[in-house]
Amino acid sequence: MAMDKKALFFLREKQNNMMKKLSLALTISLLCLMISFGCGKKTTEISPEVASSDEALFKLGEKFIKKDPEKARLYLRQVIDSFPKSFYAQQAKLAIADSYYRKRDEGSMILAASEYREFISLFPYSPSAPLAQHQIGMTFYRKVLKPGRDQTKTKQALAEFKKVVTNYPLSEEAKSAQEKILDCEDRLAEHTLHIGVHYYRV
């Protein structure tokens, strides 16, 4: 009877191992198909070896990040989805955020800020967390308007830069954030003065 239980145990272990291998193979196959058809007309061949390697996928994303950001993001998101605890998952998340930030238009800045926030949420203790928080501030700072016009972006930038100084006071980014804080405060003060002069003249 003991032998039967032992044999049954090993049989179940063998079945579990087979299922795990089958699951991994299916995941890799699906990944290959997603990357192949996910780019529309720009179909991309990817080997199972690349699909099963966080480093290889990340480097593939880096390769396309400037000439084809959309394709690059597809690879980089697969790093995050397939290897969420990997060092390259952190790098991939930052690379996606940076790719939006470089475009500088309003929509891309919103997406960049969202990606940087997700980075901090996913990797709160990462050495790159202060950089991500600083970049959130920069997405607003890049869009501030001169005094006399709407200062919403200035106020948002100010709030985000203050988080850098408060949450990461010893980071390299804290010094830059402090400079940006002073600039934002000067802009807001000048704006208030501008509005006051305007109403005084009226």
UniProtKB/TrEMBL annotation:
The record, for Pfam families, names: YfiO
Alphabetical keyword list: Cell outer membrane, Membrane, Signal
Against Gene3D superfamilies, the record matches this protein to: Tetratricopeptide repeat domain
Q: Which residues form the Outer membrane lipoprotein BamD-like domain?
A: 55-200
Please indicate if the UniProt record lists Membrane as a keyword. yes
Write down what this protein is called. Answer: Outer membrane lipoprotein BamD-like domain-containing protein
